[in-house]
Amino acid sequence: MALGAEMSLESITCPPKATQEVLVNLEINDRCAFTAACGETCYLNSVHVDHARIPSASVLAAARAFVARGDIVRHLAIPGKEPFETPELLLEIARAFHATPEVERPASLGVISASLPGIQQWLPKFDQAPLCWLALSVDVEGSGLRAGDPLRVLDAAVSGRTSGGTKAVAVNTTFTAETLEAVVSLATRLQDYAIDQWAVCPLMVPRGLSMHSVVSEGTLERLVLRLGKLTDVAARVVVETDPDSLRRLVGETRWNIINTNVWRIEVLLPNGVWLFARTPRPGYFIRMRYDGELLSRQQFATLGVRAGRYGTFRSYSDVDDALERMRQERIASEKPDADAQQHTITRSFQVAA
Ligand code: SF4
């Protein structure tokens, strides 16, 4: 969907092994019924234009190659453009995932979707090869993103969870200063659904050659304070941000740095809200675009990129080559990290009682 799939559900649904370090985002198509409605507010509409598609058979081969590297791949996330636009392909990928022994495959296979008809019609058919998680993109009026009734999508997803098509259902919502109150109001509408996580993240827009958050730290702090009164809306309420903003926002608290010390920073604030920031380091994220280009995280946030930093997918060995290049990048970035060692942050974060 609009953003990269960060797979922030892992500590409540699918804990990875220590060696699994790479988050894979696999674009399985470039189609979405909301393309015109979302326009440039859609991250993907902004960063991807006019690239040739690779055939579905190649996308499936790439998915199999990433599944086979479960020794290193942490999560295989399918963010779109809209995965249920190519449901047979998605189902084949899920079958390939489940055909691989649990100890050999990634810790999870999951999907981000906003498609009501896709989820209604297809999610129950995944009962023999269930998704580990389904994250719904649910946005509020004024966000500039798709219109529609989010409760109907949620109904479909939750009933798909009941029928065994997915193990977990999460909701992703973008916010800006202008939509903050509407996002807070959305919480009351989500409350009856027993969702596994509600993740709220700043809207990103193109500025110059790359994508930027439109949210100030003051707005971020305001949102965190408001959500602190609403933590019963989901099993977990998460606000996603970047490491610098997180560092400035939190006070005397410990960083709960997941697994490798560099994967992601997760902080449980005293008001019950989780604050997440992904690692800024290279070598932990790869995105396969629908034309087979293997992009780094930085490339994925840049407009007009043609060639992937990690090459182009043509065969299994291209995935192995890309993962090896990423391993080299991780090794090169392993310098003493003041943040990871210090663990304690100084500025006080005032949380309302
Ligand atoms: S629904 Fe998501 S993927 Fe589709 S156009 Fe809108 S933001 Fe983009």
SSE order and pairing:
Blueprint: H1 10-13, E1 22-27, H2 35-38, H3 43-47, H4 56-68, E2 73-80, H5 87-99, E3 108-113, H6 116-122, E4 133-137, H7 150-162, E5 169-175, H8 180-190, E6 197-202, E7 204-207, E8 210-213, H9 217-227, E9 237-241, H10 243-249, E10 256-257, E11 264-268, E12 274-278, E13 285-288, E14 294-295, H11 297-300, H12 316-332, H13 338-342
Parallel strand pairs: 1-2, 1-13, 2-3, 3-4, 4-5, 5-6, 6-9, 9-12
Antiparallel strand pairs: 7-8, 10-11, 11-12, 13-14
Helix pairs in contact: 4-5, 4-12
Bound molecules: iron/sulfur cluster.
The site of iron/sulfur cluster has 16 residues, from α2 and α3.
Descriptive account of the structure:
With 353 residues, the protein is an alpha/beta fold. It has one domain: TIM Barrel, CATH 3.20.20. Helix content is 32%, strand content 20%. It has 13 helices and 14 strands. It has helices at residues 10-13, 35-38, 43-47, 56-68, 87-99, 116-122, 150-162, 180-190, 217-227, 243-249, 297-300, 316-332, 338-342; strands at 22-27, 73-80, 108-113, 133-137, 169-175, 197-202, 204-207, 210-213, 237-241, 256-257, 264-268, 274-278, 285-288, 294-295. The strands form 2 sheets. The chain has a 12-stranded mixed sheet. Strands 7-8 form a two-stranded antiparallel ribbon. A hairpin with a 5-residue loop joins strand 13 and strand 14. Helix 4 packs parallel to helix 5 (87-99) and helix 4 (56-68) crosses helix 12 (316-332). The longest helix is centred in the C-terminal third of the chain and has 17 residues, at 316-332. The radius of gyration is 19 Å and the shape is globular. The two termini are 35 Å apart. Bound molecules: iron/sulfur cluster. Residues 1-2, 32, 34-35, 38, 42, 44-45, 80-82, 114, 137, 145-146 line the site of iron/sulfur cluster (SF4).
